[in-house]
Amino acid sequence: MAQILEGDVLDERYLIGAAIARGGMSTVYRATDLRLDRPVAAKVMDPRYVDDASFRTRFEREARAVAHLNDESLVNVYDQGTDRAGHVFLIMELVDGGTLRELLRERGPMPPHAAAAVMRSVLKALSVAHSRNMVHRDVKPENVLISSTGKVKLADFGLVRAAADAKITSNSVIVGTVAYLSPEQVTGHSITPASDVYSAGVLLFELLTGSTPFNADSSLGVAMKRLSEDVPPPSELIDGVPAEFDELVAVACMRNPAERFADAAEFAEALDDIAVRLALPPFRVPAPTDSAAGRAATQDETWAASSGRPNSWKETAAYPQDDFGGPQRDRTGQFPADDSPTTFAQPTGAVIPPTTPVPGPEQTQPELGGYRDRAPEVPPHAPEVQAPGRNRIEPRSAAKSTPPGRQRTRRGCALWIVIALLATLGMGLGSWWLGSGRYGEVPSITGLSQPQAMSAITDAGFEPVVDRRYHNSVAASQVIGTEPVAGQQAVRGDDVKVLVSLGRPTVPPYPANHSPQAFSAALADRTLQEKVGSPVYSDDVETGGLVKSDPSPGVSVDVGTAVTVHYSKGKAPVQVPDVIGMSEDAARKRLESAGLVVADVKKVFSRDAKPDEVLDVSPGAGSGLIKGSSVTLQVNNGIEIPHVVGRKQDDALRALAKVGINQVEIRDAGRSSRPNGRVESVSPKEGELIDPDNPAAVVYVSRRTEVPSLLGRTIEKAREAAEKAGLELRVDGNAADGDRIFWQSPRPGADARAGDTVTVKGF
């Protein structure tokens, strides 16, 4: 199957025009729908891939996906199919402008209000997809189209997936454009609308700064950086970005999807809140002045004229001159030039083959923070085609013959006259050129806009070169003047600097690593002088690092202002507080609050302090230390004798064991008024401390008992009663167990000690 060519009719309906863009798997052409007589864009698959099921599936998926979505922020798909020649195609809306990539290439980073205008439409398109549970997966400037009327549309849904199915493919290949991939696209985790939010956050970062956040020597390196690094604040790369936009990018580009905006609608709501808070003015996004689609349109018009075919292309509307203050130019449309996003193997433990450096997405230069008004060079015009019927016809009088001799004489005379005139003219021109003719006067550009100033310099015969400088009185983006100054003579064709104001300089932000060299360079870039102030203590900045400046970052100052910088002399010293007599926990908290670390606690026995009381601190109280230094505590580990007097013997033993006193000697308390088995006293006494290395104590237990009345009882019953009272029974005489007692000693109720003997007599 042959490649489709300009002039062919696709599917007996679409007249193919010039190519707008060529990608890895397809080419986009301008085309005319002959049935409806309207311009369209025809996306035709490369013949090499028509038999590849995966590529055909992607074409069909794009058509089906957009067919389910309907919004002015989306590029419509009108038709899809395969013609008789085997060409697989999509017929889409022709957006008569260009891509966001081309606009960034022309003008550089955008001011916040312009970036917000672009993002509002992009997020609207994504929110429509997200509401249908679809994930775009390839948000990038090449897929954002701008019409000549300022409408921003999202294109290329070839990678769209349902959120539930948007996971890594079975062969571990990740699809998407490297610079805009979310971390989960790199690692192969589930893809959700939050993945598009990350890509949109990177897009916003690029709109504000002119570049994407991560750079490396290979596409794999660029992808892997987002797994370990956060997207930096745009304000670190370019001046004039409000803190609200830094925060917006930070939330959208959180590495954890759960911490981002849930979907594009939530992202858009936050953007609208910021726009209201900052009172951002409304803005119509201009189409690029030089786009691939524009060149394709010119080529079509030329081809139509040369072939005699009527030009069926709709004329592209001119965009207003006041959009950016530049000259009015025609705009024509373009579709994404690359419909085959970068693919690379996911690191799943297998050996990764060496990667060659792959250039990332095009990066535009900030040009010191301005939104450039200078358009790129205009491409060479198409060759001029001579219209039919314009061949030159000689007058009849010229056809009359002249005698050969006279004709030669006249020609010779005329030739010498011409030579003489040319010689005279040459000498005059040479004298003029060597004198004043090669010089021109630099024109005055006071009061002109930058584009007007550039045109004035060009018209005067010079090459304008923009030189942006800080200025105390001329507002940012306004023209200051020229170098050489207006009125001076300069060689025509030489460069003349158009001095454009950056406004008053502001004190730069502190470098993330607090580098003195980086801050000094940033000051110099803004014409500011560095004045070194006295060093200061800092708990957060290492010795020699930048701590603060006066004025502070962000303050607007005059050109050449001296900024006083203070560098760190390390952490401030602290005095060791007096913690002797405190408990260990209280002492530890007091020391840590002072910025010190308790590195060791030594246990020491002392009878003169309470248990767990701090006996000493080293270094001693009042010593000066660097914050974060270590100290050692000495803490009393003495064991306090618990309350056991009056308790039963077993209860007393358990109480002693609980505090670590296991070496307990039980002794008879002797005479005691306490009931039998109760603790009379303990040694050491209750409340005293003992050494944990010798945890011994003596417990004195009462053995007192009362002699029971045995009179009238049988010998057998009396013996049971005596034993119950802890006494021994002795029978005086030959009384048997069944005999009754008529006498006992000691008498009933008398005090006795356990083990004493009671003597009885029976009959």
From TrEMBL:
Coiled-coil annotated residue ranges, if any: none
GO molecular function: ATP binding; protein serine/threonine kinase activity
SMART domains assigned to the protein according to its UniProt record, in alphabetical order: PASTA, S_TKc
Domain Protein kinase: 14-276
Pfam families: PASTA (PF03793), Pkinase (PF00069)
Bias type Polar residues, positions: 299-314
Every PASTA domain range: 436-502, 570-637, 701-763
EC identifiers of the protein: 2.7.11.1
Signal sequence coordinates: none
Keyword list, A-Z: ATP-binding, Kinase, Nucleotide-binding, Repeat, Serine/threonine-protein kinase, Transferase
Reaction catalysis annotation: L-threonyl-[protein] + ATP = O-phospho-L-threonyl-[protein] + ADP + H(+); L-seryl-[protein] + ATP = O-phospho-L-seryl-[protein] + ADP + H(+)
Positions of region (Disordered): 286-408, 668-688, 740-763
InterPro entries given in the database record: Kinase-like_dom_sf, PASTA_dom, Prot_kinase_dom, Ser/Thr_kinase_AS
Enzyme class: transferase
NCBIfam families given in the database record: PknB_PASTA_kin
Name of the protein in its database record: non-specific serine/threonine protein kinase
Organism listed in the record: Corynebacterium lactis RW2-5
